[in-house]
């Protein structure tokens, strides 16, 4: 039986062992491409893969668990083991990871719990989730013949709280459900974070997260260890080799030469996990959101991260530079040429159908009526859009004063299905002048959840509840009698494109692509406004003319030979008669209107 221990160093079967790990999130990579990414990690000369596990994907509704397809973590771990890779697994309640609400499931907001705490209700829900997940991981521990070396208890908790009772409760649940290999925590490498977020008193390994200055950061960690009499190996659990991008910002890039040398500096002093080795894609509505002051800053669909592999899993210049330096410093390791996939620029395809959202609501949603508007979580929905509708009576000849109170995150207001205004979180609450040509008219409000905050002071703020909020006001009173259409867009197969299209409204646009050969490709969304794209019913993620990303990566695994259907849901009334493709990502910063 293979044995892994943490003493003054890491030991594998009694021999010192340097962990050379790279992060690959199985839930951000098409399952057909897992082998490609894992092979390239091994080819780099590394020996371990690390992954988070997102609670909100595995339990999207309370008591409903999923582990198939892109969520088949057992298959991912088996592929890694077959390639000779060990694994570090982070099944923590919260993952951050620039992921929708840091991996916490949105339904927790309806349970009146304090997340990331020893609140008995929160721990009860966590226990239910762990009872589903952890037995699958327990049998894949190194001690059971699998490849898992370590498990994380909590993630960067020192940047959030300091409740040791909570951390111990999580560790106890993990032990109760069969996890026996070593545990660890990871935090910023300075004392305040390490003291608040670790369980050093319980002899649980402390690791640090940083992306440069390895000596200075490791020195801080060693000083902290010394306070408690610990002589532990040094490990950077997240060595940030790039960074994520937000809508409307310039694309962030890190100099490959500088990064490669920084990685080697870290490896010479301790063990490393490259975050990310392969970033992948925030498919669907799962992008996270940053918080700066009171402003929310949603992140883009691509999780390219300027990582060692690009979004498609192909090696970047960083791969070759690191491998070159690794070969010089550690010539005894196994290296190989990386696998490379070729993307294809398919010919443009023509529009074959279009239908306005207002005309096909019954195809997508079941109407829910309430005097007061309900938020997304109350409607049993986690992500996507909600359309709110009511009738408003004219009380005066001049324009009516109209306001949305606490809507999140983006609203589009329509009067009798004609666009009136668009507001974002920083604008919502400001007056909207409603011209009322008729005595009674229909008000429609399309609200988009643009991504819940995944890190920082707003993680548990009321702003993470999405929808119309406290409601809408005309004059000085709240409006009642709402019809609501939850639009999670998980199922769009019943769309009837014969129901009519009206200019300037949110709408669905259908294109058909005939294929004899399959390859990765990129959809060029130039000319469209804002929305999401479905390829053969699968939600690729968001696009937005605001940039910097103006294309969407399409893995070959979502295509099929013969007829492929591509449906664009666009909310601004902007579309193209022809849909174009590219062989690579297209980036452009376009200012918001």
Structural commentary:
This protein has 593 residues and is an alpha+beta fold. The chain has three domains: 4-329, Glycosidases (TIM Barrel), CATH 3.20.20; 349-356 and 495-582, Jelly Rolls; 361-487, Jelly Rolls, CATH 2.60.120.260. It is built from ten helices and 31 strands. The strands form six sheets. An eight-stranded parallel barrel has the order 4-5-6-7-8-9-10-11, surrounded by six helices. Strands 28-27-30-25-14-31-26-29 form an eight-stranded antiparallel sheet, with no helix packed on it. A hairpin with a 2-residue loop joins strand 12 (289-292) and strand 13. Helix 4 packs parallel to helix 5 (164-176). The chain is globular, with a radius of gyration of 25 Å. The N and C termini lie far apart (62 Å). The model has no long low-confidence stretch (mean pLDDT 96). Residues 373-488 form the Beta-galactosidase 1-like first all-beta domain. Belongs to the glycosyl hydrolase 35 family. Residues 10-327 form the Glycoside hydrolase 35 catalytic domain. This is Beta-galactosidase. Residues 506-564 form the Beta-galactosidase galactose-binding domain.
Any descriptors?
593 residues; alpha+beta; TIM Barrel; Jelly Rolls; 3 domains; 8-stranded parallel β-barrel; 8-stranded antiparallel sheet; 31 strands; 18% helix; B-gal_1-like; glycosidase; hydrolase
């Amino acid at each position: 039986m293979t044995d892994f221990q943490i003493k003054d160093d890491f030991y594998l079967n009694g021999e010192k062992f340097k962990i050379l790990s790279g992060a690959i999130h199985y839930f951000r990579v098409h399952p057909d491409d897992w082998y490609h990414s894992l092979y390239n990690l091994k080819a780099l000369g590394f020996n371990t893969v690390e992954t988070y596990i997102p609670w909100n994907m595995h339990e999207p509704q309370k008591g409903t668990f999923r582990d198939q397809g892109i969520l088949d973590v057992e298959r991912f771990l088996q592929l890694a083991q077959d390639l000779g890779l060990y694994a570090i697994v982070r099944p923590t309640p919260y993952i951050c990871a620039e992921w929708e609400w840091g991996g916490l499931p949105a339904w927790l907001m309806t349970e009146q719990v304090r997340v990331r705490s020893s609140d008995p209700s929160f721990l009860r829900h966590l226990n239910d989730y762990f009872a589903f997940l952890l037995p699958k991981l327990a049998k894949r521990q190194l001690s059971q013949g699998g490849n898992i070396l370590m498990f994380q208890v909590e993630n960067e908790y020192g940047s959030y709280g300091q409740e040791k009772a909570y951390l111990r409760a999580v560790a106890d649940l993990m032990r109760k459900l069969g996890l026996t290999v070593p545990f660890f925590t990871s935090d910023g490498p300075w004392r305040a974070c390490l003291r608040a977020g670790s369980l050093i008193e319980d002899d649980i390994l402390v690791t640090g997260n940083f992306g440069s200055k390895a000596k200075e950061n490791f020195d801080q960690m060693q000083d902290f260890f010394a306070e408690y009499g610990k002589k532990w190996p040094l490990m950077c659990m997240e060595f940030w080799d790039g960074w994520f991008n937000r809508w409307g910002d310039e694309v962030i890039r890190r100099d490959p030469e500088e990064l490669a040398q920084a990685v080697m500096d870290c490896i010479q002093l301790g063990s490393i996990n490259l975050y990310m080795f392969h970033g992948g894609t925030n498919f669907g509505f799962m992008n996270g959101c940053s918080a700066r002051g009171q402003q929310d800053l949603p992140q883009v669909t691509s999780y390219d991260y300027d990582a060692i592999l690009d979004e498609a899993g192909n090696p970047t210049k960083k791969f070759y530079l690191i491998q070159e330096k690794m070969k010089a410093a550690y010539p005894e390791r196994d290296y190989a040429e990386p696998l490379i996939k070729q993307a294809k620029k398919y010919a443009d395809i023509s529009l074959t159908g279009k239908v306005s959202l207002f005309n096909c609501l019954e195809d997508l949603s079941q109407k829910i009526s309430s005097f007061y508007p309900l938020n997304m979580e109350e409607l049993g929905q986690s992500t996507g859009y909600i359309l709110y509708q009511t009738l408003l009576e004219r009380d005066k000849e001049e324009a009516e004063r109209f306001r949305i109170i606490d809507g999140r995150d983006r609203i589009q207001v329509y009067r009798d299905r004609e666009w009136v205004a668009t507001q974002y979180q920083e604008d919502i609450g400001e007056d909207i002048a409603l011209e009322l040509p008729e005595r009674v008219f229909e008000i429609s409000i399309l609200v988009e959840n643009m991504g819940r905050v995944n890190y920082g002071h707003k993680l548990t703020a009321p702003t993470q509840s999405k929808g119309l909020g406290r409601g809408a006001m005309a004059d000085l009173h709240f409006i009642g009698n709402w019809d609501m259409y939850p639009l999670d867009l998980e199922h769009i197969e019943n769309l009837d494109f014969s129901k009519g299209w009206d200019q300037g409204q949110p709408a669905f646009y259908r294109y058909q692509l005939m294929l004899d050969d399959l390859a990765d490709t990129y959809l060029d969304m130039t000319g469209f406004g804002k929305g999401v794209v479905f390829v053969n019913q699968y939600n690729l993620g968001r696009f937005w003319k605001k940039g910097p990303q103006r294309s969407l990566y399409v893995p070959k695994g979502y295509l099929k030979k013969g007829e492929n259907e591509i449906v664009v849901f666009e909310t601004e009334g902007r579309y193209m008669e022809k849909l174009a493709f590219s062989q690579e990502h297209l980036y452009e910063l376009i200012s918001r209107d």
